[in-house]
Amino acid sequence: MELPNHPSAASLMPLNQRNARRFVDSFTPLISAQLSRFRLPHDLLQDAVQETLVRCLRGLKHFRGEAQLSTWVYRIAYREGLRAQEKLQRDRSRAVSLSPLAEPADAATTYSPSFAAEQQDEVLRVRTAMETLPNEQRLVLGYHYLDGLSVHEIALLMSARPNTVKSWLKRGRDSLKSTLAAPSPEDSA
Amino acid sequence: MKDLEQLLRDPRAHADAPSEESWRAWSNEALAKWNAEQALARRRSPMRLASNALFYAAVLMALWMLFPALASTAEKIGEAVGSYEVWVGMPNPWVLAGLALAIAVAITPPLRQRLLHEIG
Question: Which residues of A lie inside 8 Å of B (Cβ-Cβ)?
Fold first, then answer.
């Protein structure tokens, strides 16, 4: 995956403060956009972005260039996203055991009737339908169509077989098509 | 309805990326954290060097004592199997070697970790 306007690993050496700043300024938008697709609350998203950046900075001097720097960064961010999701699930299961009515803030925003009523645009209908997809399907659709990663790159990133990635992509698309083919609440009203 | 693949290429079809203000603030915090780690690592390095030197010196001392001890033991066993005096006189190099190993393995790594923890 060739990303424009990203420094190479060699150009970031020696990793002094100036080069660390260059790395961070260059990759933070990419990392935060990727991690935002993990459906994390704001505080966890912030933690995951920061942890990814710190892990990348720690590991940069050991980066040997076997893969593209951006692929390496994607992979670290992906793992951090999974870690944050696991933490979220643990916290939610604890919260649910205390209060069964507790609902995460982001989900409430996504599925509220007022938000659904605004879904006139096709793109926004896709966005709402995306929220109902399983994690892997939603993530691979983002990696493939938004970030432009190939099936092979996604497989490498998610430690999955290419055929599994293809299957997630197909199931995700099929699921979106069937959701979008169903009449919207506005149409039935 | 547009082509689904075309729709999926629209960033609005995916979760909103954080604002520039947000990600800049996060990246500044991450950078500050990393800088603090670097400063700490620089402060730790002389102590780390000293404790590593102590550890490897103890290991070398143990090996240096252990090999002659093994050789002399084999020799003494060959000379006088069953002689009580030989067996009584023999453990000294073993005890010393064992002591040095104990220092190397059991004492210096925890000492090193404790030192690093305390200065951290």
Answer: 17, 20-21, 24-25, 28-29, 32-33, 36-37, 39, 45-46, 49-51, 53-54, 57-58, 121-124, 126-127, 130, 141-142, 145-146, 173, 176-177, 180
